[in-house]
Design goal:
Length: about 160
C-alpha cells in the first residue's frame, strides 16, 4: 500500500511540516501517538529503542523518555502537553532534557492534528523551532530518516494489531 509521506523543511519559518497517512482507523492512530506503551514500540528507528520514564497525557502533563542506543546510551527528551482535543489534535513543547526532566535551552512547539477517512488516518505535524540552528542540527543528524523509520515501525504495529483482531 502506498501511504502519503511528505516532509518539508521551511528554514525561513524555522518549521518542519510532516504529513503522513496510516492504514488504520483514528482510534488506533490516536492511541499510537498518545499512549506510552505504544510510543515505546515505534518511535525509535531500529536498532534504537525508546524507554518511557514518565507519561501523563493531559494538558500540563509530560512525557519524559530516553532514546536508547544499541550500546544502552540514553539521550533524554521531554514533551509537555500544552493543549489536547481528543482524537482531533494536541500541541506540545518539546526539548532535550536530563533523566530528571530538567529541560535544555532549545525547544520546539509541535502541533499534531488527525484526520480520519474511515480505514485511513492522516496525521499533520507542524514542528516550529525556537531557533534555526536547532532545526538545522536535527535535520543534519537524520531527523527525516529517523521519522520515516519510526513510521515504518508504526505501520508494522498496525499490521500486527489488525492481524490480532
Amino acid at each position: 500500500m502506498n501511504l502519503l509521506f511528505d516532509f518539508t523543511v521551511d528554514k525561513a519559518a524555522k518549521t518542519i511540516y510532516i504529513t503522513r497517512e496510516f492504514a488504520a482507523d483514528l482510534d488506533l492512530v490516536w492511541d499510537a501517538f498518545t499512549k506510552a506503551e505504544i510510543l515505546d514500540q515505534w518511535t525509535a528507528p531500529k536498532p534504537w529503542r525508546v524507554q518511557t520514564k514518565e507519561m501523563d497525557f493531559r494538558e500540563g502533563g509530560r512525557w519524559l523518555y530516553a532514546m536508547v542506543s544499541p550500546e544502552n546510551v540514553k539521550g533524554w527528551s521531554m514533551v509537555v502537553f500544552l493543549g489536547i482535543h481528543p482524537k482531533t489534535d494536541f500541541s506540545t513543547r518539546n526539548t532535550f532534557a536530563d533523566e530528571n526532566g530538567n529541560p535544555g535551552s532549545a525547544f520546539s512547539i509541535v502541533n499534531n492534528s488527525f484526520k480520519s477517512d474511515g480505514d485511513k488516518t492522516t496525521v499533520y505535524i507542524e514542528k516550529k523551532f525556537d531557533d534555526l540552528a536547532t532545526l538545522e542540527m536535527i535535520v543534519a543528524h537524520g531527523f527525516k530518516e529517523g521519522v520515516s523509520m519510526g513510521y515504518a515501525n508504526l505501520d508494522e504495529y498496525f499490521r500486527t494489531v489488525a492481524t490480532a483482531k
